[in-house]
Amino acid sequence: MNLPYTVIFEKRTADYPKWLPAVTSLVSVLVAFIISGIVLKIIGGDPLRVLKFFFTATFGSWPVFSDTMVKATPLIMVGLACAVAFKMKLWNIGAEGQFYMGAFFSSLVVLVPMVNLETTPKFIVITLMIIMGMIGGAIWGFIPGYLKAKYQVNEIIITLMLNYVALYWNNFWIFDKWSDAGFQMTPQFEKIAWLPRLSDLAKEYRQFSGITLHLGVVFGIIAAIIIWWILERSHWGYEIKLIGDNPQAARYAGLNITRNLVLVMMLSGALAGLAGMSEISGVVHRLQEKISPGYGFTGIIVAWLAKLSPFAVIIVSILFGALIVAGREIQPSGLSNLLQGIILFMVISSDVLLRYKIRLVRLEQEA
Amino acid sequence: MTSSSPPNAVEMKDIVIRFPGVLANDHVNLTLKQGEIHALLGENGAGKSTLMNALAGLYKPVSGVMKVHGEDVNFNSPKEAISKGIGMVHQHFMLVPTQTVTENILLGLGEPKFFMDLAKYDQKIRDLQDQFGLRVDPSALVWQLSVGEQQRVEILKTLYRGADILIMDEPTAVLAPQEIDELMNTMRSMTEQGKSIIFISHKLNEVTAVADRLTVLRKGVATAEGIGVEGLTGEKLAELMVGRKVIFSVEKKAQEPGAVVLDVRDVSAENNKGVPALNKLSLNVREGEILGIAGVAGNGQSELAEVITGMRTCEGSIFINGEDVANCEPSKAIERGVAHVPEDRTGVGSAPNMTITENTIMKNYRDNPIGNKWSINFTEARSHARGLKDAYDILAPSVRTMARKLSGGNLQKVILAREITTNPKLMVAMQPTRGLDVGAIESIQRLLLAQREEGTAILLISEELDELLTLSDRIAVLHEGEVMGILDAENADVKEIGLMMTGMKRSDA
Ligand SMILES: Nc1ncnc2c1ncn2[C@@H]1O[C@H](COP(=O)(O)OP(=O)(O)OP(=O)(O)O)[C@@H](O)[C@H]1O
Ligand SMILES: [Mg+2]
């Protein structure tokens, strides 16, 4: 059978309209949902019920939406961490390790303890934890940055390997030194080291009871604004983009590439470290083994789907936060991973639409 | 028309191609006869590359008809164009530097299927080389090749794919004079063997030397369609291209040069392959003086420009206004007021995915009023860029256009504009007028002379002897990284320069 039409791909000569990437990304997410629905149908599920459940379990009420946002919070910061590095074409896939180092360093404030936890005001304790978390992450970004700048060592390999180092470093302390009665976790932190949550206000405002959303989300949003400003307005952002686009030209323009390389890796690490601090202080309230279900790796996907735009990182993070929450609620939990995979696949393939115009053309009728 | 004559190799009729804000081709016709060399000329941004990209299947015309060997075609991809025997050698090469010549030629083809039996293909490629006189070692890595050799690889690539219609986009712009002669011989031998060629150039002498007919574009419109080259004068051609008479003379005022700005002493350096490229070279340039550097390409010119601007390490010393800057970072040279028009405009001189604005502020994004303490004032930056766009006649829809969308000549103008506006003490200009049309060449030459009058010291590296003779005060001839001698431009003997270029030292040097 011959179809009377054929599809042709035409390379775009014009720039695509500004709104197109947003639309294609949205459509890809929708298509991903539809494909997952079909898969569900094939294996004998009821896609509509699952879909409905997905939405009620993630956006259906304030408490579940708050859960979604709690999961989105570390993703925002880790996503920003990856976005900044990727802008300079530095492939930092070590956000996971930087996250753990951030968690570890901020915990030191409580575990050592670095200040007298009885007398120091909460504000100071939290600020100190933020600083320590960012330093921890920055150190873990500095190492691969320095090795690349000085010895041209590939950052992908180093950042990947440092993930494991960070994980086992953490384990060493929680299995042995600071273990809580033999469990693989430290004792719970004093309340003073907890980030304020909305549920803390439940006494005055009843509707906040059980809402676990914590101050970390504000860190994420502020970080997004600052990163946007750095990338779009500052000297440094201009340098980052120039080095990312053409390192030769950047050298020619007199930029210090090695210094920028180290600094950007440190900034990236500091953001991931901040995410670690926010999880420790806002959610788990102790240092323990599995603080992150792979946030650092999801962050890579988030940054990529957001096309490295800081504000888009927030939106994509919320979607992925919802997927994580749904994965907890929906059985089998692999479903949400399936959906994540399909979304990623769809969004990446939708890039074709940005580069080509697709037209349906009627084939000429043969006589 | 008699029925016995073969159909034309290519017929393009009423081709219209539009980019946002630009009508790049406006009902253009072009006919390439079987076995001819057809020249395509026009100002920078006239739409030459665009028209040829359409023929090579890269762009799709909004309207118009294309025929290849009498058959209607409608290409949706370069692949389809290649299958009809059309091959294009682009203005900017598209080779993989880390692969060998053979690998590059085979890239994207269905063969070799699984085992890389490259030796077999090496032989095939050697046969092609013999057939057309395109010498280059098939097993060499592309990054080690000179630009001229890389071009031969591009030509071989199209021939290997069975092209019988070749499009060459400004092939001579990157070549040294004797390489140009070789290329022309190759072109002639190709047409003798039944191939047809479209040849884009800005130079009348090249066109009259090899082309049979020519087509001229101006602002997307054809002002001459397939006229014969006989009896064509430079004035006439310039008028067709620019639409007005171009006065081919720039005047150099007599003036006394001032203090020494650049003083290069006993400098030695290696090239990218680790082979010595500069050998204890010494020269100096003074305020308000243009020192021209003549020489066959590859005799140390690039390396000389790079050591002065801090892009390459060296032995010896380089004084700029008394301070030794040898082996400093490029930022040091910039700080000392050195401007640099690099040889490689896409690889070094610009950032392709950044806008014209972002490309023009590369060297002054920290300075008032564009730069504040931490941030960049993009409103100021854009108005700065707009100023340059008007002053240097840069053809682009707006200053937000990305650099990679500019025509070759317009990109060169962006770089020149940026470098000249830094008010340099020393300007190192390598092939500044390469790829520019006559009008633009003239205005750039005027600008260089104006810089000279303002007291800038200029090191002008060029392969155009005419350009060196018109602009320079003195000319130094390079051969294998050594200065063969320095002559006064005013009464320099072209023959003598030629001899020095082949390695004959001047007695008093
Ligand atoms: N991909 C693109 N997107 C937008 N505009 C483009 C694109 N390619 C070319 N143009 C514009 O089309 C016009 C014609 O460009 P083209 O490259 O064909 O010029 P040209 O005649 O080859 O000039 P040159 O001699 O400088 O190489 C220019 O104004 C250029 O800015
Ligand atoms: Mg061109």
Report the biggest beta sheet of chain B as strand number plus sense, adding barrel if it closes. 6 strands, mixed
The third-level CATH topology of the largest domain in chain B is Rossmann fold
Form type of chain B: globular
Uncertain residue segments of chain B? none
**From the 3D coordinates, which CATH architecture of the largest domain in chain B would you assign?**
3-Layer(aba) Sandwich
Structural classification of chain A: mainly alpha
Q: What strand order characterises the main sheet of chain B?
A: 6-7-8-3-9-10
- The CATH architecture of the largest domain in chain A is Orthogonal Bundle
Strand adjacency order, main sheet of chain A: 1-2
Computed over alpha carbons, the radius of gyration of chain B is 24 Å
- How many helices of chain A? The count is 14
As for the CATH topology of the largest domain in chain A, it is ABC transporter involved in vitamin B12 uptake, BtuC
Order of helices and strands of chain A: EHHHHHHHHHHHHHHE
Task: Quote the average pLDDT of chain B.
Answer: 89
Oligomer: heterodimer
- Low-confidence region ranges of chain A: none
Tally of discrete structural domains of chain A: 2
Instruction: State Rg of chain A.
Output: 23 Å
**How does the overall form of chain A come out from the CA principal axes?**
globular
